[in-house]
Design goal:
Elements lengths: L2 H14 L4 H7 L3 H4 L7 H20 L5
Helix pairs in contact: 1-4
C-alpha cells in the first residue's frame, strides 16, 4: 500500500466536513434524500463520512494501493 495515496484519500474525506449544504448536494446527489433544506446537515454529513471511510477501508483491505 502506498502511504501517500491513502493520505490523499483521507484528505478528500476531511474536506467533506467543511462542505456547505449546496456543495454536498452537488457532489453527493443522494444527500438530498436525507438532508433537507431545513434540517441540520451534520447527521447526513456523518453518514457520508462513514460511507467514504468504509470504502477506503475496503480498498486498503484489498490492497488496492500498490
Amino acid at each position: 500500500m502506498k502511504k501517500k495515496e491513502i493520505i490523499q484519500e483521507l484528505e478528500k474525506i476531511k474536506k467533506i466536513t467543511s462542505m456547505t449544504r449546496e456543495e454536498l448536494y452537488e457532489k453527493y446527489p443522494q444527500a438530498r434524500e436525507y438532508i433537507s433544506v431545513t434540517d441540520s446537515i451534520y447527521p447526513g454529513l456523518t453518514g457520508i463520512v462513514r460511507s467514504e471511510l468504509g470504502h477506503l477501508i475496503e480498498r486498503i483491505e484489498k490492497n488496492e494501493f500498490r
